[in-house]
Design a protein that fits this description.
The chain is an alpha/beta fold. The chain is built from 16 helices and seven strands.
Length: 324
């Protein structure tokens, strides 16, 4: 891979620049504890608190502020050859249309859709320099149905300047173990059926977001060919977002010597090792797990149904009543 592999650092800088603003805002809203172990990179996330309550509303607002970037193509939001003044005028004139188009892609018939988690995974991956290869939301033909396949297909730079195609899964379940089990099952099914990866890569070849990936987009599509010669530094990674309910977020109160924020952080940190053991036990059951990288985001919520309801209300996306 000429420019990608021979100058992986340059490619990595390009990707990181794309996601740097997201990282800054994530750090303002979340406590993020990074843990690296073997080929697994964890980010334990906890929504920050003010004096009296968890700042979930701020977090949901942040997710909604990224809807356009998530649902629309890079070119739609970054028209070429416009001056700064012309770009400002473009958004003044087109913001309502762009917002309406983005919201039209969200599923309306179910309150339990996973789009909140998929949106967070998109933001989290890009914040770490793993940039989306194609926009599946833009490929949806109906807001009533999800797009089948992986929740995220991104590209990034790993250790030794390796180029990683990253397949992402988002699960938000009441129990952490359920979210983890469902994610590992998806990875296992994907690994055991080569046609699933072929399908994803065919989509990338056909619908790659060229504007988002700039001068690298052509070579990325060339690399996907089975006849591309130099794939020595091409690897595969899996990312997962595991959201779950944690009762401590609803009932916990700090003593007089601690703030709510510090109190919750302390309790959450005490759960970290147990979660790592569970994740690594599951990943070790996968065939060829040692040959892949894993990027893992973990985040607890007080009440998932309540969080989803707030998210949809903030978006203004109604839930259609289905027939009995």
């Amino acid at each position: 891979m000429s420019s990608l592999s021979s100058n992986g650092k340059e490619f990595g800088l390009f990707l990181n620049k794309r996601g740097s603003a997201k990282l800054e805002k994530l750090n303002a809203l979340l406590h993020i504890r990074n843990v690296d172990h073997k080929n697994m990179k964890y980010e334990f996330c906890l929504i920050r608190s003010n004096k009296d309550e968890i700042r979930e509303d701020d977090f949901i607002q942040f997710l909604c502020d990224n809807i356009l970037d998530y649902a629309l193509s890079y070119a739609e939001l970054h028209p070429k050859r416009l001056t700064k003044k012309e770009l400002e005028q473009f958004f003044i004139e087109n913001s309502a249309r762009l917002t309406s188009k983005a919201l039209s892609t969200f599923i309306k018939k179910s309150k339990n859709t996973g789009e909140l988690g998929e949106l967070f995974l998109f933001i989290a991956l890009e914040s770490r320099g793993f940039i989306r290869l194609l926009n599946k939301m833009a490929l949806k033909t109906s807001s009533e149905m999800p797009f089948h396949g992986w929740d995220a297909v991104h590209i990034g730079v790993g250790s030794n300047d390796s180029i990683l195609f990253c397949y992402g899964s988002s699960k938000m379940c009441r129990k952490f173990s359920t979210a983890l089990n469902e994610t590992i099952e998806e990875i296992e099914n994907f690994t055991n059926d080569s046609s699933k990866e072929e399908h994803e890569l065919n989509l990338v070849s056909s619908y790659i977001d060229c504007d988002r990936l700039g001068k690298y987009s052509k070579e990325i599509t060339e690399v996907l060919s089975p006849y591309y010669r130099d794939k020595a530094k091409l690897g595969k990674a899996h990312s997962m977002f595991l959201g779950y309910e944690w009762q401590a977020l609803e009932n916990s109160k700090p003593d007089d010597s601690s703030t709510l924020d510090d109190h919750l952080c302390k309790m959450y940190n005490e759960t970290r090792n147990e979660i790592i053991v569970k994740v690594e036990n599951k990943i070790s059951s996968l065939s060829d797990a040692s040959g892949r990288d894993f990027l893992i985001w973990v985040m607890p919520f007080a009440n998932l149904n309540g969080t989803r309801s707030k998210f949809r209300k903030k978006l203004g996306v109604p839930i259609k009543k289905v027939g009995i």
